[in-house]
Write a structure and sequence with these properties.
Layout: E1 3-8, E2 17-20, E3 45-48, E4 59-62, E5 68-70, H1 71-77, E6 84-88, E7 90-93, E8 99-100, E9 103-108, E10 111-112, E11 121-127, E12 131-138, E13 140-141, H2 143-146, E14 151-154, E15 158-165, H3 166-174, E16 180-184, E17 186-187
Length: 188
């Protein structure tokens, strides 16, 4: 099976880009590391300026780097093999105060130890506090370690990128969802 690194589409000329005003003490990494989050109270908000972009995509770009998804994308992901927490989030237009309904922060909890460093293109950074950090330019993974996961993150401090299966990609294409790009990765 083929797998892909999921990216935000950068070619949309008029797509909404969300910004936060107050992080309410929620650190940027908290929805990137594959761990459950139990402090969501619904008060966090994203904002956008219609003059900078007004097209709502199914994967919304945002300055926290979180996986912000439409109800339509959430519904599709719920049919696939993964483990994700969803937190409803308000998306508010700065000037009018109008709110986009049906958006969620998707916190991907499935983390697999499947990276193949021997076939990846990377370099190492040595730190005193953490030890070796791998900065990966091109990923390779062991298919047998991914199992049948459709949406996942990698272990070994590689949790930030989102990886998806060919099944996920086909569902996105078949349903004409927007805001996503797919970068094929090497599968061993």
């Amino acid at each position: 099976m083929e797998f892909y690194k999921l990216g935000i589409e950068v070619t949309g000329k008029n797509d909404i880009v969300c910004h936060y005003k107050d992080d309410l003490g929620i650190q940027q990494y908290e929805f990137k590391i594959g761990q459950t989050f139990d402090r969501w109270d619904g008060s966090f908000k994203f904002y956008y300026d219609k003059s900078e972009g007004e097209v709502p995509t199914d994967y919304l770009a945002n300055d926290m780097g979180w996986f912000v998804v439409s109800r339509k994308l959430k519904t599709i992901m719920e049919t696939l093999n993964t483990k994700i927490e969803y937190f409803p989030v308000d998306i508010i237009e700065l000037k009018s105060g109008d709110s986009l309904k049906g958006y969620y922060i998707a916190n991907i909890l499935r983390v697999v130890d499947a990276i193949c460093l021997e076939e990846s293109d990377y370099y190492e950074i040595q730190t005193k506090s953490v030890g070796t950090i791998y900065n990966v330019r091109k990923y390779a993974i062991y298919e047998s370690k991914v199992g049948n996961s459709d949406i996942f993150k990698l272990a070994d401090r590689q949790e930030i990128p989102i990886f998806v299966s060919e099944r996920f990609k086909k569902e996105i294409e078949n349903n004409e969802l927007t805001g996503m790009e797919f970068y094929e990765i090497k599968v061993i």
